[in-house]
Amino acid sequence: MIFDLIKIAAQVGLLYVPLILGIYLAMGVLSLPDLTLQGSFGLGGSLAAVLVVQGVPPFLSVLAGMALGAIAGLITATLHLKLRLNVLLASILVATASYSGCLIVMGSGNISLAGFDTVFSWASALGLNHQTATILGGLVIAMAVCLLLLWFLRTDYGMSLVAAGQNIQTARGLGIRTENRQLVGLAVANALAACSGALVVHNQGFMDVSIQTTVIVIGLAGMMIGLALVRSGRVAPTIFALIGGALIYRFAVAATLQLGLNPNMLQLITAVLVILVIWARYNSRSVLSLFSPKVRHERRQLQARFYEEDRVASFI
């Protein structure tokens, strides 16, 4: 039973790794609360499905979906930079429009890929079943995306992008054009989200417009679990820990359903899981030293500092 749950977690979880990396890039590296990622997930899946049905090679359909996701990210960045909209508001508007965009691209609410080749169809030629092919293909794609993102963030341009996210005033003082970094960063992040959407559609064999609903919470759950696995501030361990976060989250979901939990409770459990992981990540030391006066004093100081530094940016 445990082995079956691990296989299910790997089959589904690996396909969400690009989405989690996109969330990490936008929110963790650039410090931009971009909800366009949810819409890009659906856009990537819808365009990939349409192109597969029209006879386009499956791999090219995934790339085309990523390009459409990148365009959605560029639109959000442009609204933020040119119209001076709050990133959160701009991304909500684009994500909302993306729902209609999926319907326009597909021409209907859903599309079936039954009888068409997907990126996982190569398994039949090797005598592998669909689950094994998805796990192997997902692992290769997840590792490739992680290595490419790691390489990108280690380039001079990537390091300037990280600097723009960590301290935008200092980055501007060093002559970095932070607006360009935000444009590129959001485009790459949304392309990764669209990649996940395309892969999920190829795996499940159909595209439904509701596929993007709450997907941002799923990605956040995987990201927070992955970040809880490492304490290092280095990029490489963090990126590869996100793969572990995706697998652990999907294992928890599969195990929960296996125990007979009502599937209608799944989204509630996901939200609670994210809250618990975030709380444990920032309060693990205080839990271990619950009765230590020194730790309690340090915790009160950190909380007071948070209240002093917390600011809510203008929404309009």
Concise structural overview:
With about 325 residues, the chain is mainly alpha-helical. The protein is built from 14 helices and 2 strands, in the order αααααβαααααβαααα.
Distance between the termini: 51 Å
Taken together, the total number of domains comes to: 1
What Rg, in angstroms, do the CA atoms define? 20 Å
What percentage of amino acids are in beta strands? under 5%
The sequence of SSEs as H and E is HHHHHEHHHHHEHHHH
Per the principal axes of the C-alpha atoms, what is the gross shape? globular
Main attributes of the structure:
316 residues, ABC transporter involved in vitamin B12 uptake, BtuC, two-stranded antiparallel sheet
What does this structure look like?
With 316 residues, the protein is mainly alpha-helical. It has one domain (2-265): ABC transporter involved in vitamin B12 uptake, BtuC. Helices cover 76% and strands 2% of the residues. The chain contains 14 helices and 2 strands; from the N terminus they run H-H-H-H-H-E-H-H-H-H-H-E-H-H-H-H. The chain has helices spanning 2-13, 17-29, 36-53, 58-82, 87-106, 123-126, 130-154, 156-166, 168-173, 178-204, 215-228, 235-258, 266-288, 293-309, and strands at residues 110-112, 206-208. A two-stranded antiparallel sheet has the order 1-2. The model has no long low-confidence stretch (mean pLDDT 85).
